[in-house]
Input
Amino acid sequence: MSLGASSKLLARVIAPVVTRHTTAASARVRIRPPYTRLHTSAELLKKDYYETLGVPRNASTKDIKGAYYKLAKKFHPDQNKGDDKAKVKFTEISEAYEVLSNSQKRANYDAYGHTQHATSGSHGYQGGAEFTASHAEEIFRQFFGQGFTGGFDFDTIQQSAGRDNIYQVSLNLSFNEAIEGCVRELSFRVQGVCDRCSGTKSEPGAKKSKCPYCGGSGEEAINTGFFHMRSTCRNCYGQGYIVTTPCRNCRGSGVTMQSKRGSIKIPAGVSDGQTVRVIVDGTEVMATLNVERSRQFRREGFDVHSDVAIGISLAVLGGNMRIAGLTGPIDLKIPPGVQSHHRIRLSGRGIPRLNHYGSGDHYVYIKITTPKKLTPKQRDLMIQFAETEQHPSDTNIIGLTDKEARKRIEESNEAFSGE
Output
């Protein structure tokens, strides 16, 4: 065999082996990312964030916030005490909202899903850190706010941080207003759709130009090696067009600050710290109530408690007296021989039950008061009463051995007998 033929034969034998190894090496180089990370099964089994909030993938920021608002209130641990499933659901909802409410994190999630999203540390906490219940509570507090402080009237509504078209107001109520109910007038400024452009952000009649980045589709392609993903356009934010002539009234924002007035009806029986949801001129308002404490009544749920001081004679002999009630004076019957701290129940005289029929009860506690100073006549009468009582042998009552007091008592008895 000639040298040329031998070379060709050797090349035919070696070529497949070299090609096979080269192809495998190339595949390994192309598939392996420039970093090494172990992906756990928990990341792969996570539920889709959009499904968790119940919104479509093209949902607006307003829709995402509205979905979180409803689900967070429904599954919050304080509303579902002892329910571990609700606690887990609340954490999942908060994690989904934390990602989808941020445009950059949402774009990363849309492009790479849970796995790449976790490697980028996009939770807003430490990179790749597990999302815990404490993180969920922090997001909940940021969303609903910690209350308002500063030099303004508590009856002035301020826009709640992180929410659209949801406003919060803190109302001060007296104890009687909370028990009987009342109506409060409100005036506030809110964001509303611009009257000039009707929310289109451009001058009426002005034409909009197609976005040059996405060609009017509202999406742009992202190529990273093997991955070919589509994400929301960063230039037009998914609208597909560019406003060339912004509205002069709203300056291209589509919304303006508008003054609104309305009234809020506070139902009878509300308690301190309770939140009432009302719609005022098309705007959802969350009213947190601050109820003043009563100096006379103590509240326990829908029951009310109060103390009544009576003298010795009324406690011993019994009788009737008029006391203060929630809605007016009440005639109270005192049984003979009542003891101090005795409790009398007045059924149905308490606080009206919210969303139920009837009212709670009014509990009256008897406090017997003894006089600190007595007239001579009162002292003699008490001594006479003490003589009729049975006392332990080692008891010594002041006055029973007083000769002058006994003489006055005898003279009084003789005068009474003579009459």
